[in-house]
């Protein structure tokens, strides 16, 4: 990042922080229909990845990119994510209902849910998610196995976003920005590790 220029109040890092928060707020608005959540998060990751390449990371650029990319595949990804969340919630409710083996079912369901969430979030961070969700999910699942450290970082990012939203509810509307930044950083980290001889 370039140094702060004379007379500049905030440096480039503070500008990036403000851009991340504005993209987070835009992502929250775009996630409200629920079915658009994967596309909204994927677009946020793409916009923040562009900041590394010198493109502006603004809410205007975010909405322009989101408008161009919303298609049937994005809505199918949202439907799949929503259906998975509902199935997990139903499984956990059944496990708490006192069924025999309910505790084991809850542990297995929670484990599968966490793995699916990490793979889905890593898919959102991949550039392929802009055009082909199947490829993005396949490569993200491979990354989850090959890069356990990155998967751990994704879990920490989700836990941090959830904790911030729990502590101060208005932060829930800004949390997707830092979460998208963390997901993008994990994906870039993965690329950098792959290129080290």
Automatic annotation (TrEMBL):
The chain crosses the membrane at residues 20-48, 75-95, 101-124, 145-169. Keywords: Membrane, Transmembrane, Transmembrane helix. It comes from the Bacteria. This is Integral membrane protein.
């Amino acid at each position: 990042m370039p140094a702060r220029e004379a007379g500049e109040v905030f440096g480039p890092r503070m500008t990036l922080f403000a851009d991340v928060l504005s993209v987070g707020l835009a992502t929250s608005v775009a996630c409200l229909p629920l079915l658009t959540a994967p596309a909204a998060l994927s677009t946020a990751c793409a916009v923040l990845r562009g900041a590394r390449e010198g493109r502006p990371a603004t809410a205007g650029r975010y909405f322009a990119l989101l408008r161009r990319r919303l298609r049937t595949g994005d809505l199918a990804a949202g439907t799949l994510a929503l259906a998975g969340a509902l199935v997990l919630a139903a499984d956990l409710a059944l496990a708490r209902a006192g069924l025999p083996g309910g505790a084991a079912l809850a542990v297995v369901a929670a484990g599968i849910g966490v793995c699916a969430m990490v793979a889905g979030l890593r898919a959102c961070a991949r550039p392929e998610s802009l055009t082909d969700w199947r490829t993005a999910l396949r490569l993200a699942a491979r990354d989850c196995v090959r890069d356990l450290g990155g998967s751990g970082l994704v879990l920490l990012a989700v836990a941090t976003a959830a904790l911030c939203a729990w502590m101060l509810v208005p932060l829930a509307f800004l949390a997707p920005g830092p979460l998208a930044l963390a997901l993008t950083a994990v994906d870039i980290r993965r690329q950098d590790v792959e290129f080290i001889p």
